[in-house]
Amino acid sequence: MGDNFAILAKEGNNEGDEFYVLQCQKTTHIVRNHFICPWGGEFDVGNNVIDGIYYQKWGHGENNGYIFLTNS
User: Which end of the chain has fewer CB atoms at under 10 Å, N or C?
Assistant: First the structure.
């Protein structure tokens, strides 16, 4: 736990991002009940998932970075 991962974003997402950065909060586990996450991702029974906190992209061009989303 605490490791950071780059997660590929869906093409054409509203933010125009190629990837998101996630800090692992719960190790890989299997979904037992179908659900839709707050960002609209749909997960089916049997999917492997990692729970975590997403970083938010901050800044533009060469001066961009990532910060934790405080309301996740």
Answer: N
